[in-house]
Amino acid sequence: MHWLITGGAGFIGTNAASMLAETGQKVSLVDNFHRQGARYNRDYLSDTLGLAVDYLDMRFPEQVNAYWSAHRDIGVILHLAGQVSLVASLANPRYDFEANTVGTFNALEATRHFLPDATFIYASSNKVYGDLRWLRTEEGETRYQLPDYPKGLSEDLPLELHGGYSCSKGAADQYVLDYHRIYGLSTIALRQSSIYGGRQYASEDQGWVAYFVQMGVERRPFRTSGNGKQVRDLLHVHDLVECYRAIARTPRESVAFGQAFNIGGGREASLSVNELLTRLESEHGFPMQYTAGPPRVGDQKVFIADTSKAKQYLGWCPTVSMADGMGELIQWTRARWAA
Prior knowledge:
alpha/beta
């Protein structure tokens, strides 16, 4: 199977390329190197795995069409490229729209014209559901809870696009699903929760788990947002790539295509900001140095994915434990800092 990974020098793209290459899959990678860390990952992919990352900016259809038309043997398109920060989307909404909505539209059009038999996997976001302020929330000692959703949140939630990132990802999400209905492409949208693991060059506005780990390893002060009781379910990147592989094995006639799936670690892998900080203080053996700032615009108090639909249609469920996954991330961060 020949895989094309857009955003291939990003955190998820690098891990996906590594896992796929190790199992003998042919992998092509493209990226525009906009995100910090992309050039480090490019060097890692080249020096360690012998994989080149070609420059391609998904905002420009002539670049996308040329690449797709020159690689007609691609069987799976893993579309990860995009702008990934809510904060950055508010500061520069035009780039956010072009990178996420226009870039995805260009990828779909190129697939329709040049690779109509390929499987198209889109990395959507749980932010397409908005801030979820209409859900009944209870405040506990260390976290918020959703008492009406003990199994987590399913795909039955209505879309509520709020903020630039949510709007751009939500519009792309709907285009992906519609290209199955209208043109018969084998498309799937994965509304991903908080993904973590090694090779993520995080920042204050994106990749909160890796960012907090990094601040602890470097013993640097940092700022959190809100009261720290916000909850997310964490999914290790290894489990996410296994989900991609499950989709690639899915027969073209499967009813899974043309659908969206909430993909996360589930209730067992959920943590609040406060709980993560407490866990890291225990791991490092010293207090984390942080101050609390105001809540972020459009932030969800709780998002925990109900992944039962993915298990039913794709045969997928998470397997990496929180202890193993967090240990791997901390080990990678310490090694990078030491180097």
